[in-house]
Amino acid sequence: MATELYDLTVPVFTRGLTNLSKLLDKAVAHAGPDAEGLLQRRLIDDMHPLAKQVQIATDSAKLCVARLSGVDAPVMDDTETTIDELKARIQATLDYIASVPREAIDGQEGKEVVLKFPGGEWPFKGIDYVVGFAHPNFYFHLTTAYALLRQAGVPLGKRDYIGG
For residue range 68-79, what is the model confidence (pLDDT) as tens digits? Predict the structure, then answer.
């Protein structure tokens, strides 16, 4: 039995975003009232801060599902300034991806997906888009969020990142 495209997207993103929300809970438990200050932390000046890492991780998940399924994703304006707002964004993304039927994603392995960037386009087939762009992009921002929290002293380990 072949792995279906749905199984490579919705459950993967659900697990990662659920764990990301739990990482933010641990940040609050660790930092208390100073937790909001973590949102502007960066690994280095030219990288996005924690808040933006969370926003991009959620965008990566919802836009992958939308591009494959054709089901419009909710628009999120990137205005979150608190951990509670970021957790609400994560939950809205989880709600959206859970609402997309399996049938809308399975069978889209050969679907044309074209990403448009300033200066050009990046065309993919559905499966190549998932494994060659959506997954790496999602995990890059998820891992960076984890690293920022670890750098701030939040007591996290691999099990927190992987979940289970």
Answer: 999 999 999 999
Token code pair at residue 10 = 């919705």
Amino acid symbol at 45: D
Residue 71 three-state SS = coil
- Cβ-count burial 33-50 (b if 16+ within 10 Å, e if not): eebeebbebeeeeeebbb
- Tell me the whole-structure pTM to 2 decimals: 0.95
Cα gap 68→153, rounded to integer Å: 38
Tell me the per-residue pLDDT of 81-120, one tens digit each, with 9 for 90 and over.
999 999 999 999 999 999 999 999 999 999 999 999 999 9
First to last CA, the chain: 25
Cα distance between residue 7 and residue 5, in whole Å: 5
DSSP E strands, 34-143: 112-117, 120-125
50-69 and 135-151 are packed helices; what angle lies between their axes, rounded to 10 degrees? 160
